[in-house]
Amino acid sequence: MDENNSKHEHSSGGKNLKVYTQKVWITLGIIALLVILIFILKAAFNVLLMVFAGSLIATYFHGVADIIETRTRWRRRWCVMLSVSLSFIVAGMLFWFLGAKISEQVGDMSKELPDLVKTAEDKLKQSSLGRKIIYYISGNNSQKLMTSFQQIFRTSFGIVGDFYITFFIGVFFTANPNLYKDGIIKLIPPAGKATAKRLMDRISYTLKGWLKGMLIAMFFISILTLTGLTIIGVPMGLALAVMAGLLNFIPNFGPLIAMIPAVLIGLTVSVNTTLIIVALYLLIQAVESNIVTPMVQNAMIKIPPAMIIISQVLFGTLTGGLGIILATPLLAVIIVTVDELYVKKLQNNQS
């Protein structure tokens, strides 16, 4: 009897061990699949970001075409062609008249960068606050900062091939946007087609308003920065102004990045000049934040500033620099989508 019980316990123990082993392997398999899925989604998200960037290019061309069509009443095809042609002509003229000067100043800035950093370090060593700043950005701390900076901006956007892909996606979207819009709508069940079309129209309107506001803000920042730096007498003012305008496309972080080379160049002149440059950049950003940004938000959608920073950190962590650059329009699209698909329906049900 005892012998039978021991055999039964041994058999059940073996079965339990086998079941436990199977559960362990199943769990490991699920974890492995989740890891693989995360990597696939991350790679796919990078591709989706390039598609989104391409759609922004198409949105810009069609936004300019809307203005031309409103004023001329010409056929849409001709307005789009004129929009693309005018954009390239204006860009070519700017490059022709300003490109050589900007290229020269950027080249000088690159050559002088080590000397600028050395001069800045010598100036900072003359004060206790400066010595603390040097301590935090030197040695291991400097290496950590540089590693973090490289990690943020080491993205597909930095690869020339991906830039061309994004550009050609934008060209195809510009040439025949209805083909892709209708294709997406066809995938939606019949009951949701009207909502999908309304959502896409609203997203298009929001992005056009956002792009219009951003272009005005970038031009505004460039002109004010060039004027201020010229009055102060800072060298390489044109390159710094163009850099400030372009980097204003990235809220919060862009203006801070644009200020760094200006401060380094200012330190080669004097500490007072550096303080004036910092005050100038802060003043311009204050004017832009209190005048231009509200205009942009009224043209698209009001986004809480904290949400912009959170989205930049989130998308930057996932995809790097491209995520940071596109964080604001992506957040606008998400807010519009949630409002159209959830908030409005909830309000209708309550009423």
UniProtKB/TrEMBL annotation:
Transmembrane region positions? 24-41, 47-68, 80-99, 152-175, 217-250, 256-284, 305-338
Supply one GO BP term. Answer: transmembrane transport
Q: Provide the leader sequence positions.
A: none
Q: Name one Pfam family in it.
A: AI-2E_transport
Q: Does the keyword Magnesium apply?
A: no
**Location, primary (coarse class):** membrane
Q: Which UniProt keywords apply?
A: Membrane, Transmembrane, Transmembrane helix
Keyword Methyltransferase (UniProt): no
For this protein, the record's PANTHER family field holds: TRANSMEMBRANE PROTEIN, TRANSPORT PROTEIN YDBI-RELATED
**Family named by the database record:** Belongs to the autoinducer-2 exporter (AI-2E) (TC 2.A.86) family.
The name under which this protein is listed is AI-2E family transporter
Q: Which organism is it from?
A: Arcticibacter tournemirensis
